[in-house]
Design goal:
The complex is a heterodimer.
Chain A: E1 2-14, E2 20-33, E3 38-42, H1 49-57, E4 64-72, E5 75-76, H2 79-85, E6 90-93, H3 106-116, H4 121-134, H5 151-163, E7 169-173, H6 181-196, E8 200-204, H7 208-214, E9 217-222, E10 225-231, H8 233-236, H9 243-250, E11 294-296, E12 299-301
Parallel strand pairs in A: 3-8, 3-9, 6-7, 7-8
Antiparallel strand pairs in A: 1-2, 1-4, 4-5, 9-10, 10-12, 11-12
Helix pairs in contact in A: 3-4, 3-5, 4-5, 5-6
Chain B: E1 2-9, E2 18-25, E3 30-33, H1 41-48, E4 56-61, E5 64-65, E6 74-77, H2 91-96, H3 103-108, H4 125-136, E7 143-147, H5 155-172, E8 175-179, H6 183-189, E9 192-193
Parallel strand pairs in B: 3-8, 3-9, 6-7, 7-8
Antiparallel strand pairs in B: 1-2, 1-4, 4-5
Classes of the chains: A alpha/beta, B alpha/beta.
């Protein structure tokens, strides 16, 4: 459904004394999502997860320069085709109610999303009703304003908005942040249902535990680089191959709660060898060479020491 | 001891959010406070830190009411550090609002010296949260209230931050109230988990959302 190959995003910024600096928040991202599949994108804040979503939706600001390839159903996405597909074939499930119009009733907004996806009035009204029923939102909720809905209800309304059209690819940006565990689990199970209907879902999150429970595969991002693309069960099975993926898993409170000191490279640092070089416990001389993402076992890893 | 004694609080026209609430954190003690959203955990945090004044009851820190107009011995850390930093100040100046941390404190939090000469929008949330912590980890801080302090951090940064904070609290006898949805985290870090806001019984099944009548 979606295939991202070696995506990089650069911004130029004017610093002190009008010196122009180039920053690279996204260096080398690759991933693919198939029909009926949830791929979780995990990594620290500032690793470029949200920019990836913006790139796929064609919402990057004007001073961004991208290279690499984004294919949707086998066709490369251009800025014109992204604008045409966005909201129709590709939909975003945003993070919070802040993305809803505060002055419009929620029923109206789900209907409008459905209309904007290209449906006639009658079909849009029907799919609005279906979306409300699917997410167990009572008829009475339609007349509420966004500020009147609770956190859990808001998640359902946002998911309803994204699914009122018939998008094939859904991008969920941090759908569990700030929710208590019960509501978070519900919101993830809604994503699972969508995938089981054959839709492709990109789940952007830093909640590794949730990602591993609900996703089919996980893409681990570090400093704007895909370091590992692996079946989700490899986390719990201890079959992770990149040292950063292992560090993330071992740092969970319910695992070891251990940590690797240091920080990811700043966006304006140029990195030639392994992106994780300065923090890796297993580094050797070979790590100074460029590291391609290569297939190992059932996944892909960007580490010269990983073995099948 | 940081104490709330039969504290009640409500906003202008809401029902009581806290009603006759008693709570205490001792020096050097780490207390975990779990619970679903909308129960008043964050309101309690603000009342304990003196950001909100309770209508009834009192908050005392080591037997005295919270001082006003000076550096408070009770410091509050929120989930979103970008909202607590002046966007037009370099981070060096924001951090210096609290005190001037030494190089060792920065090292323990894995703060790169280069971050200090940047503006808040140039750093990620995890980097900013550590600077926000450096700002309050002053010798004058006796109690730290961490309201979802690491909810938006990746697990590695979360473990790193808590390691630094717990080490500092232990060395200085600082009491910590940790508010979080994550029970696993609280079980790791807290000496005692307070169930005042935790829901009784098993988790409810998914219900239909209705508009309130």
């Amino acid at each position: 459904m979606l295939s991202v190959k070696n995506l990089s995003i650069e911004f130029s910024r004017y610093g002190s004394a009008r010196r122009r600096t180039i920053i690279h928040p996204v260096r080398d991202l690759s991933l693919d999502i198939g029909d009926g599949e949830i791929v979780a994108v995990v990594g620290s804040s500032g690793s470029g997860k949200s920019l990836l979503a913006h790139a796929v939706l064609g919402l990057l600001p004007g001073n961004a320069r991208t290279s690499g390839e984004i294919l949707f159903k086998g066709t490369p996405l251009t800025s014109a085709s992204m604008a045409a597909l966005r909201g129709r074939a590709i939909a975003l499930i945003p993070q919070s109610v802040a993305y809803l119009n505060p002055l419009s009733r929620v029923g109206r907004q789900v209907y409008r999303a459905s209309r904007l996806s290209g449906k006639c009035r009658a079909t849009a009204a029907r799919s609005t009703d279906r979306a409300f029923a699917r997410y167990r939102l009572d008829e009475s909720v339609k007349s509420l304003f966004p500020f009147q809905v609770s956190g859990g209800m808001a998640r359902r309304v946002l998911t309803a908005t994204a699914t009122a059209g018939d998008a094939d690819l859904l991008i969920a940006d941090e759908p569990t942040t700030g929710l208590d565990p019960v509501v978070a689990r519900q919101s993830l199970s809604h994503l699972r249902e969508l995938a089981d209907l054959g839709k492709a879902v990109m789940l952007i999150t830093h909640d590794i535990d949730a990602a591993v429970t609900v996703a089919d595969r996980v893409a681990v991002i570090y400093a704007g680089t895909t370091v590992e693309l692996t079946p989700a069960r490899n986390f719990a099975d201890g079959a992770l191959r990149h040292p950063y993926s292992r560090a993330l898993w071992n740092a969970l409170p319910q695992q070891g709660f251990g940590f690797v000191p240091g920080n990811q490279p700043m966006e304006d640092d140029a990195v030639n060898g392994c992106i994780y070089l300065d923090r890796c416990p297993d580094r050797t001389g070979e790590c100074r060479c460029a590291q391609p993402l290569r297939p190992v076992g059932k996944g892909h890893v960007r580490c010269c020491h990983a073995q099948g | 001891m940081l104490k709330a004694e039969s504290v009640s609080f409500c906003y202008d026209n809401t029902p009581w959010i806290l009603e006759g609430f008693d709570f205490g954190v001792g020096p050097g003690e780490v207390v975990g406070l779990p619970g679903p959203s909308g129960q008043g955990k964050s309101t309690l945090a603000k009342v304990l830190a003196g950001h909100l004044a309770p209508q009834q009851g009192a908050v005392t820190c080591d037997g005295r009411p919270l001082p006003e107009g000076v550096f408070s011995p009770v410091q509050l850390i929120f989930q979103h550090p970008e909202l607590t930093m002046n966007p037009r100040w370099k981070l060096r100046d924001s951090v210096a609002e609290g005190h001037t941390p030494d190089a060792a404190a920065f090292k323990r939090l894995n703060i790169e010296p280069a971050w200090l000469s940047r503006y808040p929008h140039e750093l990620s949330g995890g980097e900013l949260q550590r600077l926000a912590l450096a700002r309050v980890m002053s010798p004058q801080t006796r109690y730290l209230i961490a309201d979802e302090m690491t909810a938006m951090l990746d697990p590695n940064t979360q473990a790193l931050v808590w390691d630094a904070v717990l080490h500092w609290a232990k060395a200085n006898g600082v009491g910590i109230l940790a508010i979080s949805h994550d029970r696993h985290l609280l079980d790791r870090i807290a000496h005692r988990v307070d169930e005042s806001f935790a829901p009784p019984g098993p988790t409810p099944p998914e219900t239909t959302c209705r508009a309130a009548a």
